[in-house]
Write a structure and sequence with these properties.
Elements: E1 2-5, E2 8-10, E3 15-20, E4 36-42, H1 51-61, E5 70-75, H2 81-100, H3 113-133
């Protein structure tokens, strides 16, 4: 089990890894070794994730989640397969932790009396400036 936050842990068999050839530096070795990792986690069918977390995860994951609810993370930052596997897993855990954090409730605020007075003064000054630009009224 991979712990995410207290009360939420995902099983290792829920994560699928596919290895790909990565571009970038590596010399002749780059065309022979599949060092990039594509990690897939089916969040829609995971028993560890409840419906509320699933909805927040959909918002948090964005393009990383497919329409079927599968999170796809591709890691090709490092030259070794092992480091890319660790990187992909860390990114998945971080994504799940961000989604598991409860949203902070929005508290509506109102401008202070001084701020309202400042706004009125500035509006009046702007209005007066524009009024002075106008051509004189015909007599």
């Amino acid at each position: 089990m991979i712990p995410i936050v207290p009360g939420i842990a995902i099983a290792e068999d829920e994560i699928e890894e596919v290895f790909l050839r990565a571009g970038g530096p590596g010399g002749q070795n780059v065309n022979k070794v599949a060092s990039a990792v594509q990690l897939r986690f089916d969040a829609a069918r995971s028993p560890a994730i409840d419906e509320r977390l699933r909805l927040r995860l959909r918002r948090t994951a964005g393009r990383l989640m497919t329409a079927d609810g599968v999170i796809v993370i591709t890691a090709r930052r490092f030259r070794t397969q092992q480091r890319n596997r660790e990187d992909a897993l860390e990114r998945l855990i971080e994504l799940l932790r961000r989604a598991a954090q409860p949203l902070k409730p929005r508290r509506p605020t109102q401008p202070s009396a001084a701020a309202r007075a400042r706004r009125r003064t500035l509006k009046k000054a702007r209005s007066e400036q524009k009024r002075r630009r106008r051509p004189p009224a015909p007599e």
